[in-house]
Amino acid sequence: MQAIEILERLIGFPSVVGTPNGEIVAWIRHYLQSHGAIVTELPGPEGDRSNLFATIGPKETPGYILSGHMDVVPAAEGGWTSDPFRLRAEADRLYGRGATDMKGFLAAVLAAVPVLAETPLRRPIHLAFSYDEEAGCRGVPHMIARLPEFCATPLGAIIGEPSGMRAIRAHKGKAAARLTVKGRSGHSSRPDQGLNAIHAITDVLACARAEAERLTRGPFEHVFEPPYSSLQVGTLKGGQAVNIIPDTCEAEFEARAISGVDPITLLAPLRAAAEALSPLGFQVEWHELSAYPALSLAADAPLAALLGELTGLEPLAAVSYGTEAGLFQRAGIDAIICGPGDIGRAHKPDEFILAGELLACQAMIEALGRRCA
């Protein structure tokens, strides 16, 4: 099958983050097995979605991982001019949810599989396809933890997020959490008889604002924009009516960390401020939504040199968005970002990828296969 045909099939599976993905997993598994790959389906703890790991070549020899996620963000926003889960081609543009982020990469990888299968590989090429990346990289840690069962420690992992086929060596880490504060409702004329959850949570919001300001003063890593870690309040919900004491208020916080900083620690002062509300009679619930570490691959790393040779482009130092790459690096596997498409097209109506971008990615993967022969 050609890359465009495969992309059409993949987009046809509405594998929205947080939902079952059995259909797309089954189709990819069957396709890979038909070309002789060793394939393992790895169900996650949710019970209704799985990661997929496959190997082409000698698994006992160190090789390379091609990593991508099978899930996509929802497509309920207005502005789509066609069915987001049905590929639409106009000239060189291929429209559909996930075309760029990142089923285009998966399609290019799968289109290269027949060539890889016929190549006498001395080093293996592994495919690591994950679920729920769009929910904060929730699926891939389960797969990474089991890699020693399936292969020798890889020489590197290429994460195919959209980068215009230019390798990227670094990104920030991220952590997100939801805080729920519960007080006691009542008539607004008797505030002495209630516990106002919105008033209470303002202590935590003030802490968040102060921490965000403090982070602007460093430490710095100048490959990033901005060059410091950051923190923000992303959502705030509470109250029913102006004359009712609000008994519940909920806020979501996000932190993005430069390399060497654990993003979870950036949220620790907020959690402490929230827990200080408990002695005042409030119920406090703190729920970590997601967390993944920063990526920082040295400029002189062999993997960076390899991708520079395969793409013909000097790797970029860093990008603002996050990926699963930092999780591979934390597991002791060098990782780098390189994939087709433009991140600026992702998470928008009429998301698209160019046919030429698919072919360029497929050519890069086949060139990697020749290097491993």
Write the layout of secondary structure elements.
Layout: H1 3-11, H2 22-34, E1 38-43, E2 50-56, E3 64-69, E4 88-90, E5 93-95, H3 103-118, E6 125-130, H4 140-145, H5 147-150, E7 156-159, E8 170-171, E9 173-182, E10 186-187, H6 197-215, E11 230-238, E12 244-245, E13 248-257, H7 263-275, E14 283-292, E15 295-296, H8 302-311, H9 325-330, E16 335-337, E17 352-354, H10 355-371
Parallel strand pairs: 3-6, 3-7, 7-16
Antiparallel strand pairs: 1-2, 2-6, 4-5, 5-17, 8-15, 9-13, 9-14, 10-12, 11-13
Structural class: alpha+beta
Residue share in helices? 25-40%
Shape: elongated
In what range is the share of β-strand residues?
15-25%
Number of helices: 10
Model description:
The protein is α+β, with helices and mostly antiparallel strands. Helix content is about 30%, strand content about 25%. The protein contains ten helices and 17 strands. The longest helix is centred in the middle third of the chain and has 19 residues.
